[in-house]
Amino acid sequence: MEQRLSLVTLGVTDLERARAFYEALGWKTGAQPDDETIFFQAGGIVLALWDRSKLAEDSAVEDSGGWGGITPAHNVRSPAEVDTLIEEARAAGATIGREPEETPWGGYSAVFIDPEGHPWEVAHNPHWTIADDGTVSLG
Amino acid sequence: MEQRLSLVTLGVTDLERARAFYEALGWKTGAQPDDETIFFQAGGIVLALWDRSKLAEDSAVEDSGGWGGITPAHNVRSPAEVDTLIEEARAAGATIGREPEETPWGGYSAVFIDPEGHPWEVAHNPHWTIADDGTVSLG
Question: Which of A104, A129, B55, B124 could form a disulfide with B11 if both were Cys (CB 3.0 to 4.6 A apart)?
Fold first, then answer.
């Protein structure tokens, strides 16, 4: 198995609301395969929005209805960018789960929760490198 | 917000078991910040394994205990590679949630479920392009 992800799908109950939220954050949709799937080209991977019950069935799992042990993160290049992005998320309708704060690992981070209940950590990690194209490298 | 992800963290209850599973699939760990976090450089993003209860607290959510609406996928370059990877996952201890099959959207896919209950779709999508470096492009 090559050491990479290709796609992360977020299950949603209200596709248009979810799409509008990510578009309010400045994201642009890519080629749409049908009326029920939204794709965003996100660097070298794809982020998709799709009906949560269909995703559960397709993923061969039972939906426990809440959070299920996976959290995506978006790293930025400075603590100030964490503050800015959290304000943008708040304005776009996110719930702020954790306001920006210094972390025990020497970084600075916060959490926003999208309208479907999916949390995103927004972090500045001074131990990692973010290239001009947004790709992240460990240590 | 730049249109990208930096990190996907999988919450786990048995870190060593989870690490052993991904290592059995051929993944190599990157720089470790401490004894409780495992990082894998996965193309231009990072995949992390971390204690699920700590991740829930850090993500400002309640853990519903099962699957929670997010499924990662790993795309490959041919249907045959789906078959091969599913056999590798089975041998590494995964549960196969869905055996390889043709999909309604003209692809070929299957699902394996890791020892912590996280499903991964393994897919060949003939509408997408996979570059030599593994990055995926829409249509």
Answer: B55
